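Bit of a strange request maybe. I'm writing a small parser for structure token strings and I need a real example to test against, not something I typed by hand. Could someone generate the tokens for this chain?
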Amino acid sequence: MTNDTSKPNISSNKEHSLEDLRPSVRFQAVKILNRYERSSAYIDKLLANTFRQYEYSKQDRSLLTEIVYGCVRWRAKLDWVLTGFFHGDFNKCINPVKNTMRVGLYQILFLDRIPDHAAINESVEITKRLQSQKTAGLVNGVLRNIARNVKNIRYPNPQQDNAFYKSVINSYQKWLVENWTEQFGESAADKLMQALNERPGIAIRINRHKFSDTTLKDDLKNRMENLGIELEEINGIGGSYYLKGLGDDISRNDFYIEGAITIQDPSSVLVCELAKPNASDFVVDMCAAPGGKTSLMAEMMGNKGKIIAFDKFEAKLEMIHQNASRLGLDIIKTVQADATSLKVKGTPNLILADVPCSGTGTIQKHPEIKWSIEKDTIKKLVSLQRSILSNSAANLKPGGILVYSTCSIQKRENRENIEWFLQQNKDFELDRAENYIDKKFTRDGYLEVFPHQHGIMGAFAARLIKK
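Reply from user aminoacidic:
Good idea to test on real output. This should exercise your parser:
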């Protein structure tokens, strides 16, 4: 098996001094990775905080984003190489030194337009600032040795342990490689891992409440393209596009601020299409934050009817308010409650149970999931998911629709949960997904998408009718 280590077309602009108030890109990358190691926070949040604090150029923002995501995405492969060249026990290194070497090595292995000597020298200077001259000498020696021997790096022997080999080459935990190989077969698992390692595009959709007909949508598209922002329509999902030419911070764009567009992955749009809410519906979103699906359902309803958005954490409800306000929606009411036990006042005829899940379908966007998910994580999540699913069913009126969804690609969280639910609840039946969305996104009556097959984030959903 060959590994794709092709390097993106990213150039390095002139670096700022490490003594400048604005840290250099590589030093800032090490700082972010250190914070990530300490807090397990999503790196997109850490990057967003950095960009609010410092005014980097567009090129610097792009390079910083690339390095941080790359070091997390390819951590297992980077650490394998560093371990092989490090004099001593690499695992015993403190995180600042580890991350400095990861940043340097990522540039050597993956970034063509950055000379090896520039990447190494910067890593040495960072180490001097964070540690000592002696440690900087060690970092210098390790990275220069790797750069000289990059074509001769030896990886694990696939004949001895194929799963371990793939876990290093593709940079995943070994148990995940084994799990996906068993679930999908070896060939499909290989394609899945490669797809999940690709850098995701920025996906947006047009506000259906503000742009309800083709003419208005075309007008918006033309105005954006006049500003150098290209829209690539996503086949089979109306109103959804990939953006090109915008840069990495869509929140600064006037179209976003005015609520004409919003960031939402196409797989989430498909879940709402499957739910198909109507203007007269009483809709409940059981686990609503951050509110993307809630807002889209309100748009599909023409901002008429009633939606109650529940979430366990009060702080997250404010995100729903802010998003709805920006999009011009006022039919959404937010309530803090636990989805496993909440009781809805009244009888909703449509409930969306977009349950907490492993998020394995979103590894492209959140490579941190590769390292945070553990073997027993799925088991714990399944118990929670079934509890929310059962409580959702209890709150739904007869004849109503229950949509269960995840952004996971694990069968235990998806098909097996629905099979269990239908066995336990004979008053429910599956309403086949192909009746509501493009058939290419469906299988066996479910919405089921995978990055390596459909080119979008992985997701699952089932539409159930209460008899």
